[in-house]
Records
---
Amino acid sequence: MSAHELRVEGLSVRYGHASALTDAAVTVPGGSVTALVGPNGAGKSSLLLAAYGSVPATGRVFLDGDDVSRLRPAARARAGIAIVPQGRQLFPHLDVVDNLQVMAELLHLPRSAVQGALDRFPILRTRRRSLVGVLSGGEQQMLVVARALMGSPRVLLLDEMTTGLAPLVVQELGRTVTALAAEGVAVLLAEPALGVLRRMVSRGYVLVRGEVLTCEEGGGRALDDAYRAAMGVQRPRELRPAS
Ligand SMILES: Nc1ncnc2c1ncn2[C@@H]1O[C@H](COP(=O)(O)OP(=O)(O)OP(=O)(O)O)[C@@H](O)[C@H]1O
């Protein structure tokens, strides 16, 4: 296994006069899943989009040590950075195959890449000629993850992948990204709360009001504790059986 790495340094994002991300430094090594947790509006999407190149940002982004900060999003995608964006950004009036074909063309991949993506989740093959707008939320999210993986990325950025999905779908997606991380893909999972993904996370960062506060290496539970501490929230007391 050769583990890939995403590293951002001094990454800052502003929308007009408003600062969304300030001087962020984050390293995402392949081999295990790294999480980015923070409340709504903390700047998680801004960090992921800045790493992907689709919002204007200052600072530097390194892919396996190479500075990709000056590359546009399509070039970063071809270099090996993939994103599962919040809101999915699918074409609802195209079918599953045609949605995948759009990415194949962006990445200059052969048509067989579409077939490979359909194999990623069995449900996608059975739904391949369905319009994407009629798929369930879970099916759509599987399609977005399959689409992101078409170019065999070195880095996978997942923006609130689990929001609104049933636990079984979350577990299936979680298994997929954990396996990818184990193969060496640098996986960064941004979530407002880890939920059932907690046990899949090895390390992570807490982001509050645009600032990276801590890097926690002790697994998902330790990251949750660091997140609670950053937010000034205490861990709920263990439930005791009623006497
Ligand atoms: N296109 C935009 N124009 C102006 N302000 C924006 C834009 N996108 C995000 N913001 C603001 O930047 C800040 C950070 O937003 P961002 O979406 O990065 O946070 P987030 O942690 O991903 O939040 P959420 O969990 O709600 O998606 C917020 O105050 C948000 O309102």
---
Amino acid sequence: CLIRWSMGMIKASFVSDFFSYVRRTQQHQWRCSEVTFHCDNQALCEEWVQVTNEQLSLLTNRPKSLLVYINPFGGKRRGKRIYEQKVAPIFRLAGIATTVIVTERANHAEDHLKTEANLDKYDGVVCVGGDGMFSEVLHGLVARTQNDHGVDQNQPDAELVPCSLRIGIIPAGSTDCICFATVGTNDPVTSALHIVVGDSQPMDVCSVHHNDVFLRYSVSLLGYGFYGDVLSDSERNRWLGPARYDLAGVKTFLSHNYYEGTVTFLPAEDDVGNPRDKLQCRSSDVSEEKEKPGKDDSSDWNEIHGKFIAINAANMSCACPRSPKGLSPFAHLADGNADLILVRNCSRLDFFKHLLRHTNKDDQFDHPFVEVHRVRKFRFEPERHILVSLEDLSEPATKTGYSTPLGSWSCDGEILPEVAIQVR
Ligand SMILES: Nc1ncnc2c1ncn2[C@@H]1O[C@H](COP(=O)(O)OP(=O)(O)OP(=O)(O)O)[C@@H](O)[C@H]1O
């Protein structure tokens, strides 16, 4: 896969040109290599270069101009250095023009994309950071596209307009789950090479609403109970860096909370497989067939009431280096469905066994307290145990508080402000 010719140089009596190309190495990693062609005829050598450049210019999927956002504080705060040392030289070699914005605050990239950015100038947007940074860029781009087309995001059934720009991810965060699940590795050089050769991978995007109010989009994990609690706790210890997730994980596991509520879901069409069919996602294209509106009859909805330690909706495998097969190993990237995993209340030991299976080859769904469904839409309503104080018993019951905490949803690493949600 040629990137471009680099240089023609005359040495003694012969001419040589070297070409850069992408080489696949082990573990999904890509590297840039060079091959040198020698020739004693300068005119012929120049012809090679010209023909190669002509062929390359025909490849319209390769970006020529990119808008880059760098989060200097993501992960181990190496975003800027990673970009300057590993990524910018590759973009330069490929002849890509870049506008680089180092973010100065949270939501800087999102706000810039929503309002100021002149998107006509670019072939794509690149985020250097973690999943939170990717989510910012995604929200900025999707919101801008809907605003430009007059689509009201607050309408849960609104037909969203697809974004014309692609998003590239240079991993420089704490977990980088979205990069790992789409590229197969968290390696900035590999990601930069995927971007310059114009690789693309469609992804499902879920919209999350509370009544008729839009909350957020999700591309990886919507997690309630265990993962919501881990995120809430880890946010309080951001100063710890990536280690905050380990600490929060241990604390949340030890507190062993469960939450009561009702999950209602619309199952996926029969032809899209199921979360345990062991069919690896090989998707690189969303066909119109997959996007067709399916059955939406209220009789097709299933309802499950219970006490749950965790409710997870995985739009992709959610694989990361710690859990190489992810929360739902066979979730597809772009099939219009999510895998809904319900972990009912169980003993601490059983829950530990379930968690442990995310790190080995055993089937984490093979427990009596776990069920998993491939779904097109779902809703969650928490059970609200209303507290009525004794003095109020003479009065009609009023909502004075809740006897149990309601927990919170983690939506791609952000806490949602509501617990009762509708997801599509
Ligand atoms: N300049 C900035 N100052 C403070 N916060 C920022 C800045 N730029 C971006 N952010 C916010 O930082 C949050 C976390 O960033 P990011 O996702 O890059 O790193 P991370 O949280 O360490 O990694 P991961 O999300 O993979 O766990 C994002 O939600 C983003 O909104």
